[in-house]
Hints:
alpha/beta; 23 strands; six-stranded mixed sheet
Amino acid sequence: MKLNRLFGIDSEKEISHLILDSRTQTEQGLFFCLEGLTVDGHKYTQSAIDNGCVAIVHHKELDSYQEGIEYILVDDTMDELHRVSNVFFDTPSRKMVMNTITGTNGKSTVMKTLRNILLRLGVNAGYIGTISVEYNDYIFSPSLTTPDIVELQGILNDMVNEGVEEVCLEVSSQGLSLRRVDAIHFDDASFTNLSHDHLDYHKSMEEYFKAKKILFDRLDDEAFTIINADDEYGRRLIEEGYPHLKTYGIAQSADYRAKDLVIGEYGTQFTLVHEGQEYPVETNFIADFNVYNVLNVIAILHKKGYGFDRILPELVDIEHVDGRLNRVDEGQDFKVFVDFGHAPDSMANVFKYVRSITPKENKMICVFGAAGARDTLKRPKMGKVATEMCDHVIITEHDNRNEEVVDITKDIVSGVVGDNWEFVPIRIDAIRKAIEMAQPGDSVVLNGKGEEKFIYRAFGKEDWMGDEVAASKILKGEL
Length: 479
């Protein structure tokens, strides 16, 4: 695409790629000088030129200018990036129905489940989130939960070309505060909950909440919102009076409310109350926190116009979401669960459910660690909730990055209650020990990594088989 189409300037230069990282090797690239938390793109224009960029977009004066390169001075590089990305990719989010969600817990479960049910209802739907990018026969990993706008627009454009009709997109708080979705048009947005996480970035729960709120403040008047009425931050959003707002919950009055919950080992039953009518619901999802996720899905689909007669039958046998309270069963006489939750609140929710299905005379054993170079304030809280709710705790590596696992563990241990814990630094050894010490009737919970097939080291990603595979192999005697 020619520069004069992107900026209305007198230049016939052809642009083939939009570039945000000056180290990216390209041909006919357009480099945007973005200012991040630690890096200012204005300092790396020469690197971008050396790697094939033919034009530079900037909002500050540069140290040098090179003949033959187009320099485009703008008021705000980020604003221009979003405007240009829509021109370059032909505004793909306006060509599909865009469903989105934000919150601390439940984003992946709701969006993946929504996508799976839409497919069953005959809608060609795609998914973008923490777990993967999925549409038609394509499944691959995104760079981040919410990719940068160039990557995201490229994925959405590919989805349009593949005939996708609806997209289910997770949006993280960092993605919102870093303006990664400013150019995206959303048709609806959901809020799950807010609990302690990512405070290394947001610094306080109030700032964390404000980041989440950006999504709802940016919606068009035609868009609808679905909000958890049982969450204190959800109630604050409800007070904002967004148009076309619907609520869900269990404890509080809500448009879509669950009552008479019967939560079993292999499924859940409850009564859905909507506008004075009651509807029996049965699902293979387990744990009370998944009732919230199911209610969210029901509310989105119903607001879209699907009747309960079409929605509720699809809930009976839902595809399990990878790494979200998945059960590993190789015929052993004790239970093994794998869950992605790595915040104190999400860990507590899982422990509460597993405890409810573990005989009183039996033990609950957990394995977990904390991420390096991330929120250190939650580490003692993780130690506290694990040692309070579990009978035995094995602390191990998670994604240590540039920290030593022993130092991360010291932070976790500062919050433990009692002496029912031990430190096993290598994750596979920790999982093996938990499984080998389990007695008939006990429960083992492997927290934190979920479906992830990597562990972050100081040098980058290292391949990891995944907790579920590791547990399965150990149970079968293959490892």
